[in-house]
Amino acid sequence: DNSSEFITKYRICRRQVRECSGEADHHEGMSSDDELTPTEMTEFQKSKDNVLEDSRKIFEDVHADFCDIRKILLKFQEWKEKFPDSYCDAYISFCLPKLLNPLIRVQLINWNPLEQNFAALEEMPWFRAIEEFSDTKKVSEPK
């Protein structure tokens, strides 16, 4: 949150400088982050590192069975197999996205699709776990 606030303030400042200097050829949204000074880049990186460090601590006190998507989905799969009526009555397919959302968001904090070193969504463990769960749902449902 601090890094986005910093960047927003910096962009406002640059816009004011452009307006005062009469720079007319600027197109909004076309500026690059290369305009950041080394000090500002260092501050941004420090803020980013702090956010990543804090994100690692989010599920620190949570039992492993409740912060691992694969294990959570396995519990729901067992429920579906043992008590299909109850599973169906609970509308689990509507609940799962809300349940898994915080877990997925934490894993995506550092994900940037514009950088080459980052994996595609389809290669991430949480995506594969959901995909496997969806496939087993299709296989076990009567036609």
From TrEMBL:
Location relative to the cell: Nucleus
Keywords from the UniProt entry: Nucleus
Family the UniProt entry places it in: Belongs to the GCF family.
Listed name of the protein: GCFC2 factor
InterPro entries the UniProt entry points to: GCFC2-like, GCFC_dom
Pfam families: GCFC
Swiss-Prot/TrEMBL GO biological process terms: mRNA splicing, via spliceosome
Annotated GO CC locations: nucleus
Domain GCF C-terminal: 70-132
